[in-house]
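Is FE2/S2 (inorganic) cluster placement plausible here? Inputs below.
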Amino acid sequence: MTRTVSSTCPYCGVGCGIVLNVDEQDRIRWVDDDPENLSSTGMLCVKGRFGTTFVNHPDRIQTPLIKRKGRFEEATWDEALDLVANRLLEHRGHFGSFASAKATNEDAFLQQKFVRLVMGTNNIDHCTRLCHSPSVEAMLQQLGSGATSNSYIDYEEASCIVLVGCDPGSNHPVIASRMRRAIDSLGTKLVVVNPRRIEMCDRADLFLQPRAGTDVALFNGMARAILDEDLADRPFIEGRTEGFDAFVSAVGETTVDECALVCGVPAGEIRAAARLFARPPARRGLPEGLVPGSCLVWGMGITQHTQGTDNAHSLLNLALLAGQLGRPGCGVSPLRGQNNVQGCGDAGCIPDSLPGYQSYGDAAIIPFEELWGAGLPRSPGLKATDMVEQIASGAIRAMYIVGENPLLSEPNLHHATDLIRALDFLVVQDLFLHETAELADVVLPACSFAEKDGTFTNSERRVQRVRRAIAPVGMARPDWEILCDVARRMAPGAGVDPAQFAYASAGEVFDEFARLMPQIRGISYERLEREGGIQWPCPSADHPGTRYLYADSFPRGVARFVPVRQHAVAEETPDGEYPLVLNTGRILYHWHGGTITRRVAGLMEQVDTVPVAVHPADASVAEIQDGDPVVVFSRRGRMGGRAVVTDAVQPGNLFVPFVKLQGSAANFLTNNVYDQESRIPEYKVCAARIEKKRERKGAFTLRS
Amino acid sequence: MNLNGRSVEAAGSLLDAVLAAGIALPHLCKDDNLPVIGACRTCLVEADGRIVAACSTPAAGVQECATDSERAVRIRRGVLELTAAMQSRAGGAAGGPRSAESSEAYASHAPRPGQHDVRTGTHADLSNPFFSFHEDACILCARCVTACQELQHIGAIGIAGRGHTARVTPGAGVSFRESICTSCGSCVAACPTSALRPKG
Ligand code: SF4
Ligand code: FES
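Reply from A.M.:
I modeled the complex. Tokens:
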């Protein structure tokens, strides 16, 4: 007999409802879709449906591990926790922590409470630094909130969808299905902007292929076209924005034709895209009296550049210019990668604000200090990428990393590994002994999503329940419980009341979180049980939640145009030695670095070597055939993979997903240079060279 | 509406009303999560004296509906005999979450074996790592095709051929692995037999 437990998918930010069918041996036998779930409406993708077997994988860490003389030894929880507490007390003042966008809101909330209250620092961050920090930065400056403004239902009610630098078919498959539904049945227009031809291009009305790193030129060109053709939404601009004149004069510096020369997209296509976005023809069935809307949807193609924040500004300017905000069927959506990357930021696992994006000013921080009974640090902490770089200066000497594997996700991995090795003390809390965990002094076994209660917040701000479906594997425990145990041990030494870390359940943690974050104050486990997921802002218990933001006003009052200009396309550009541009991204069958999906047999059967997409022209120069083993080099490293010869990439470009397979990963090659404002690394552009892997005659090889 | 002698609310289709009243009725081509196909005829009921497919008949406008009249049951048994003849080998293997729907229909209607020639297709596609397809258990209800097209909007599978040669396929001469299938598993979730079944 199987039991069924409804929960939320642990993979991407879509946040599909899943129903786990569990047998008597506590194994997940089947994952069903959930037609009641408003985010996924009965759909799932391969990862949600078939990708959860990792929870029972034999590689799960079963006990706490302590490294003695260079080797891990199994330990009891008490031994491990005592050691962690004692060592961390010594390291207050030069400590940093990474939280996990895969863990629950409750885990994230507890972690930032531990870091701020017990460790006395704001050095806490998570992977949003590596994906959407420029979007959040730009949206906070221009709109006053860093969240997606609309809902997935808006993609189905839009008259036009503009997809920029993202590949929803691979990375947000259920969102892709919802978009296809709209396009196929309602005639919704689709504009794809991507240097690479993605699957959604099959349905696109327009496909713009800019040169890597020229996004500002392209979007300024579109803005110029909107102005030239008088398609701007004047009433919206006058009533609800500021900074328009400065923006107009910046955009006025270049003509559409000049922009076209820089970005490589023909001027006619720039104009056509501008018209479709600003004034789309009404889709079928648009209710009488509604203005046709356009949704602007983007991903890492915008953000992971040294000018990532500028790129995001140029997109937001377009939305303001065309007035495509604050109505049904329009809005701005940075597609969030991880299941709980929205929630991890909401819960305050970021260095520059408290839970709920509240700054460290008196008005916001005093309620925290009163509730927690101690003073809190008020200066912004270090951002994730800076924390790692600051190990070199000694500013960071101990780290506590939960559910992240920076030694696959940071750029220039050889450099990052040297830095992490130099730490005095490293605690890693996770499911598997991954590259970062191998370097830890103490490893603590954490529960997977299937073994604990909690909530995730998805890309459309919907807070949804995660429910315990199976018993913890081995001695694993929920992250928040482990953190409470460490915190209670350290509390006396840190001058904190240990009762601050005594909770009976995940629900109690959520209650405290909801009390301190005004946007979710009206949400409770009891409501989630009754109503299903609720979208924040939900300020009170009788508030139904919010489908789209900015209907009447912006959190900062009026929205602001931020003029930006195209600068150098990238920090490193091709030259004689490294003649190609290396672009990185993801594929459907693997999840990010692959720590999880490498442990799902069927996904490995689909893809077991890193595919390297190369244009036929470049392939023939290097004498590479489709399927050949290849080696890709950059100034920082090399990696092996298998050639996929395809004109989906432009001549002069390579595309490699950043999953690590057979020991090879793109991040050995990527460049550790950063966007000034957000400190995101430039994963999307570096100079590279590809060669066919040379057969070593007579040598023994495992696979060709 | 009067349903099997009970008064019920006439909302949605007759099938909706029947299922809402807690009455069992086969509906092998209608998935609770998918639009109506109306192809399998296993949901036939007697409505105001006529035999109609419950899944595609609106309840509004019907006064008397019987799922259990002698005539309705006899005709459904006949349909299920034809359905069973499409499967050269049905039983045994574990299918997806809705795979019991066909065996339950057979159990409640006792179709007599040997009434029709059995379809002989035995094509099997084991190429996808997560699920397999077995023609010998397929009743051509088209739920999988609908799930792929109407729910996920992928359109990777269709029914090719007619009559005895009709077959669910991800394209002529193409295996699931080679097709545009994204392995979302919605077809496996929808299949009312074990023709599409999860691996492992
Ligand atoms: S689309 Fe995302 S949330 Fe939905 S099943 Fe796939 S990975 Fe999970
Ligand atoms: S369920 Fe009514 S015809 Fe198939």
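Short version: DSSP finds 26 helices and 28 strands in chain A.
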